[in-house]
Each structure stands twice: as C-alpha cells, then as structure tokens.
Design a protein that fits this description.
Elements: E1 2-7, E2 12-21, E3 24-34, H1 41-59, E4 63-67, H2 75-94, E5 99-102, H3 104-112, H4 119-129, H5 139-155
Parallel strand pairs: 1-4, 4-5
Antiparallel strand pairs: 1-2, 2-3
Helix pairs in contact: 1-2, 3-5, 4-5
C-alpha cells in the first residue's frame, strides 16, 4: 500500500512516498515542496496545497501521515507552520484521505526503537529500513520518510 509521509513547514514541506507490502518498503519518491521567502504568505500556502495535491494525483496513496507540531521558542514560526499544516490536512481531506498524526517521539520510537533518538540515528535507520544507498536529503524529506515508516509500522498500512 502506498503512503505519503509529511514533515510540515512553509518554506519547505518534506514529503516521502513509500510502498509497503510483506514487511518491505519501496521508496517511490521523496523531496520537498519549496516556497520562496519573498512570496506573499497566502500564495505560499496555495503552492503547498497544489504541490501536495499533485502527489495525491500521481500516486493515489492509501495512507497519509503527518508529523504533529512541536515548538517551544518562536511563536510566529509556530503559527505560520500551523497554517501550512492546516492546508496540508485540508488537501488530504479533499482527496478523501484519513489523516494520521504522529508526534516526533512516536516517529523516533517506531523507526529507531527509542523515542529520544538523535537526528543522525533517525536518518541512518530510515536509510537502512528503506534500503537507500545514502541518507535522504534534505532533512525535511528524511523526516517525512520516517513519518511514512512510522505510519506503516503502526497500521500495517491499512486504512484507519
């Protein structure tokens, strides 16, 4: 079954598309939906929406997983990322996707077996689990792939 994992943001939205069957992963695509800083914010949100909808059309996924937000410093950044996250969830809803949300702790636990794993541990385990020749870049895409892996491990990639 095909799953899209999302690492939300507004400058860069990480995404990872994986197939999962018989306890094996196959990476279909990963990358980022990028928006430019000088672009008006509403237009950036539209670009994010359009980019994700394009992935839904291209892959017709069965699963959609998105990382829950965790911020403890910059309130403006948190609000802007939350708005972008809302657009991502709306896109999933419009395409009939059930939205699965995972905390960073849940993702780390699922991928590494340890909820306090360091970033390099996460990246290397994601690479190993997905049988990739190198650690996925950029970090946003690696985080999105880890989110997709978490969803597949949690649900067996069955619709919720």
């Amino acid at each position: 079954m095909t799953t899209i994992g999302i690492d939300p943001g507004y400058a860069r939205v990480g995404y990872g598309v994986v197939d999962y069957a018989n306890n094996r992963f196959r990476v279909l695509e990963y990358g980022v939906i990028s928006t430019k800083a000088q672009t008006p914010f509403p237009q950036r949100l539209e670009e994010i929406y359009t980019g994700l909808c394009g992935l839904f059309v291209k892959y017709s996924p069965h699963g959609f997983a998105i990382e829950k937000l965790f911020f403890n410093t910059n309130a403006k950044t948190a609000i802007d990322v939350a708005q972008a996250r809302g657009v991502l969830v709306l896109a999933a809803q419009k395409y009939g996707m059930q939205v699965a949300e995972y905390t960073p702790l849940q993702i780390k636990q699922s991928v590494c077996g340890y909820g306090r794993a360091e970033k390099m541990q996460m990246q290397e385990m994601t690479r190993l689990l997905l049988n990739l020749p190198s650690i996925p870049k950029p970090d946003d895409a690696a985080d999105a792939l880890a989110c997709a892996v978490c969803h597949c491990h949690t649900t067996g990639c069955k619709k919720l």
